[in-house]
Specification:
There is one protein chain. By secondary structure, the protein is an alpha/beta fold. It has one domain: 3-Layer(aba) Sandwich (Rossmann fold), CATH 3.40.50.2020. Helix content is 33%, strand content 33%. The protein contains six helices and 13 strands. Strands 1, 2, 5, 6, 7, 8, 9, 10 and 11 form a nine-stranded mixed beta sheet that branches. A two-stranded antiparallel ribbon has the order 3-4. A two-stranded antiparallel sheet has the order 12-13. β9, α4 and β10 form a beta-alpha-beta unit. It is globular. The relative contact order is 0.17.
């Protein structure tokens, strides 16, 4: 199933991804099942992206009957960035499909007690640990939710700071708000945005509607689920 273009974003149309999204949306889904759903949808998205980000080369292999031409895949030139904390199970699924990818970690969270015009929240970045990123690498930034785009903008700025050259960068999310998609498209026009769903809008608190609620709290059973 292809990833379909939708203006400034591309949408994963895999039927199993849509089914998993339905389970993640369900308010009755308990934390363990929610985490399992994020792992599963990460795995599906990883497979869908693999055709685009994984390099292949021709080789030959000896079968029990004869030698034949074959294909080998190489995912060493990929960096997957985990935006803590909600992305942790999401990343687990992605790395199932890209096991040789290098992994970076960024802890970034928006300060929800402060709201600016247009729902642009201040973001605190507390921890950054990144591998070397070269110009010919592909970077996949994973965060289950792209809401206002405040957190993602801070993450993309940090990636730009530590990168050598101009790597290809993709933002991968489960659900995205139109406002966040537009903000990333305007501020980072070279970044590819991939999501499983473009939802309706942001509410007055900056949450995606219909969305998933607070993905981090739902995944780990902490705080409010909305």
């Amino acid at each position: 199933m292809p990833i379909e273009d939708r203006g400034n974003s591309r949408v994963v149309e895999h039927s199993l991804a849509k089914d998993t999204l339905t389970r993640l949306r369900d308010a009755d889904t308990e934390p363990r099942r929610f985490r399992e759903g994020l792992v599963r949808i990460g795995r599906i998205c990883g497979y869908e992206l693999s055709d685009e980000v994984v390099e292949t080369r021709k080789t030959r292999v000896q079968t029990p009957l004869s030698e034949t031409e074959a294909i080998r895949a190489r995912d060493e030139g990929i960096v997957v960035v985990n935006v803590l904390r909600a992305a942790t199970p999401f990343i687990e699924g992605i790395l199932d499909t890209l096991p040789n990818a290098r992994q970076g970690v960024i802890s970034a969270s928006r300060e929800e007690s402060t709201e600016n015009q247009g729902k642009e929240f201040p973001v605190t970045v507390e921890y950054v640990k990144m591998p070397e990123i070269e110009g010919d690498d592909t970077v996949v930034v994973a965060d289950p939710m792209l809401a206002t785009g405040s957190t993602m903008s801070s993450v993309l700025d940090r990636i730009e700071e530590v990168s050598s050259g101009d790597p290809d960068v993709s933002v991968l999310s489960v659900v995205s708000a139109p406002e966040g998609i537009e903000r990333i498209a305007d501020g980072y026009p070279k970044v590819d945005q991939v999501t499983v769903s473009v939802d309706d809008h942001l509410n007055e608190d900056g949450y995606i509607v219909p969305g998933l609620g607070d993905a981090g709290d739902r995944a780990f059973g902490t705080g409010n689920t909305i």
